[in-house]
């Protein structure tokens, strides 16, 4: 509980009034509990409130700045985990939604579903260091169908000065925020949706951040100036057997993630800075599937270092998985500010779990009969030992009455809307 209090202390001052501060703490505790969903209803019931109104006010009308809290979350993470060898990781994730009124929702491709769905897509920035990895920034993507419709934006509470920005622009803004805030990082990595962008590469080179960025197989690089730009999959096809090295990209849940790797020096475009430019190629042992990474470092970097950074990119996928287990994909709110508030508090809850895991690993010797405490296991223990509050029978009956009353009102409202849309009888 001490680390929970430490994490919350980083943001407590952002709530000038006692009640929102108390609800924010209860909200965080609820995220780490065993509630079925992280809605205001269930979090309020878990907290001992008599209705969800106070939790809803926390996400809606209460006065506090989610972006300043986001900055505090980053500060907490860097204070606990910061390391000069840190890695910044960019990626996005999509959440399938119903309806069209939730901020950013429309039919669009989401990697989560692997197809076009009615979904909301969010770009995230994660920070990975020897002590652990967690999310430190977020930006919901607004398609042009949203930003071109001022009335729709106003209905969702989107500020008038928020215009269209591609996911790449959102990603570059987050990198700038993190680096301007002094986040200690030596490397950056991202998947191919971001890695092929020359503006992102130039940003990182200008800031002196070495990078390993995934690119598509159709990406072109120049390995020999006489040949000009060539597709990276063509370069891979011409490699001799001796070019491949079997190395681990890091430890997975079932052991080392071994792949075959090849490494080719490339000639950079004239507008990119000096340094070591290379193409890293990963080949899966089981079926030969290839993945490609465009790499840059200010000084020569070893192949093992590039492989390690490439493997670090999976950390953000783990953040998405564990984050969604505590409500990252469950903001049951529609409006701009409420969405940012919910997601930012989930990021803090995830960061607290990450720091607890880091402290445990540092203070407990390795045990070959036990794996280290994982974030899901820490959350499970937290739920059973700390948030497993025993309420009175009256509390549960009060909530049963409230839910049934709310559902009755919703049903009546639905019937009235249906009757209002019925055509007149002839």
TrEMBL record:
- The source's domain of life comes to Bacteria
Domain Transposase IS701-like DDE, by residue range, is: 15-221
InterPro entries linked to this entry: IS701-like (IPR039365), IS701-like_DDE_dom (IPR038721), RNaseH-like_sf (IPR012337)
Q: Which NCBIfam families match?
A: transpos_IS701 (NF033540)
Output this protein's name. IS701 family transposase
Look up and give the organism this protein is from.
Micromonospora solifontis
């Amino acid at each position: 509980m001490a680390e929970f209090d430490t994490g919350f202390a980083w943001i407590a001052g952002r709530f000038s009034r006692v009640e929102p501060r108390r609800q924010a703490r209860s909200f965080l505790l609820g995220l780490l509990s065993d509630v079925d969903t992280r809605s205001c209803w269930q979090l309020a019931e878990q907290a001992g409130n008599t209705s969800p109104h106070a939790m809803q006010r926390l996400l809606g009308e209460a006065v506090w700045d989610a972006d300043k809290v986001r900055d505090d979350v980053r500060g907490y993470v860097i204070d606990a985990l910061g390391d000069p060898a840190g890695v910044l990781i960019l990626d996005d994730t999509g959440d399938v939604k119903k309806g069209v009124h939730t901020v950013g929702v429309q039919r669009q491709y989401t990697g989560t579903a692997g197809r076009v769905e009615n979904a909301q897509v969010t770009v995230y920035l994660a920070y990975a260091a020897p002590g652990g990895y967690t999310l430190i920034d977020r930006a919901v993507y607004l398609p042009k169908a949203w930003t071109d419709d001022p009335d729709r934006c106003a209905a969702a509470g989107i500020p008038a000065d928020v215009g269209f920005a591609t996911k790449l622009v959102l990603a570059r803004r987050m990198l700038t925020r993190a680096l301007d805030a002094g986040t200690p990082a030596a490397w950056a990595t991202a998947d191919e949706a971001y890695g092929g962008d020359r503006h992102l590469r130039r940003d990182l080179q200008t800031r002196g951040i070495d990078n390993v960025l995934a690119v598509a197989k159709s990406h072109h690089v120049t390995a020999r100036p006489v040949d000009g730009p060539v597709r990276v999959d063509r370069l891979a096809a011409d490699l001799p057997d001796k070019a491949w090295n079997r190395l681990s990209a890091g430890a997975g849940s079932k052991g080392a993630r071994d792949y075959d790797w090849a490494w080719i020096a490339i000639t950079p475009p004239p507008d990119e800075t000096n340094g070591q430019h290379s193409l890293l190629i990963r080949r899966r042992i089981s079926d030969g599937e290839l993945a490609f990474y465009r790499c840059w470092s200010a000084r020569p970097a070893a192949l093992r270092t590039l492989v390690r950074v490439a493997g670090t990119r999976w950390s953000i996928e783990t953040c998405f998985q564990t984050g969604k287990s505590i409500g990252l994909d469950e903001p049951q709110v529609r409006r701009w500010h409420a969405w940012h508030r919910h997601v930012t508090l989930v990021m803090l809850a995830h960061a607290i779990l990450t720091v607890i895991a880091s402290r445990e690993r540092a203070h407990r010797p390795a045990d070959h009969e036990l794996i280290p405490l994982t974030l899901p296991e820490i959350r499970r223990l937290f739920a059973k030992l700390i948030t497993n509050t025993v309420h009175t029978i009256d509390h549960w009956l009060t909530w049963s009455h409230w839910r049934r009353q709310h559902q009755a009102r919703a049903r009546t409202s639905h019937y009235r809307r249906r009757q209002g849309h019925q055509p007149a009888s002839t």
